[in-house]
Amino acid sequence: MPSWGEIGRLGLLFRQEMWDQEKKHIDVMNKLQVQHNVRPTLLWEAAKIGGFGLGTVTALMGKEAAMACTEAVETVIGEHYDDQLKEMENFSTNHPSIPLLKDVIKEFRDDELEHLDIAVENDSQRAPAHALLSTIVGAGCKVAIELCKRF
Questions:
Q1: Closest CA to 148 of 45, 68, 7
Q2: Which end of the chain has fewer CB within 10 Å, C or N?
Q3: What count of other Cβ atoms lies within 10 Å of the Cβ of residue 94?
């Protein structure tokens, strides 16, 4: 099991740029929700706790497991953004916000896929039981997205 110092150093792998991008994503999405009068999910706090817990547990498992977790999460999030973009193609409205929203989603998707690449470059696929860990994390993310969409 890694020491707390090792866990701290593991955190340095996640470049400040990645953290800044994630904070920007949350800030922009929160502002868009307010601007367009969209109710946030009732599960917001649970999702934050779940994400933190998942990150903590995989970090305790080691660098490769933390990177495998990142790889799985970013894969699902990238697919979710792609699904949103496909759905927007069928919108019958010409609302002026739609092109801007599409651009935001494309930018955020590309950021997430960059994070996925960073995880792979940092040995995500060398994690013990990589396929199992990725399957579990990915499935959990898909369930969380669906629950958040409904509630």
A1: 45
A2: N
A3: 7
Q: Give the Cα separation of 105 and 84 in Å (integer).
A: 8
CB atoms within 10 A of CB 124: 24
122 in helix, strand or coil?
coil
From CA 141, how far away is CA 139, in angstroms rounded? 5
Q: How far apart are alpha carbons 61 and 69 in whole angstroms? A: 11
Could you report the per-residue pLDDT of 20-42, keeping only the tens digit for each?
888 899 999 999 999 989 999 99
Distance CA 15, CA 151 (A): 33
Residue 16 has pLDDT above 80, yes or no: no
Average pLDDT over residues 83-93: 88
Say which residues have a Cβ less than 8 Å from residue 117's Cβ, sequence separation at least 6: none
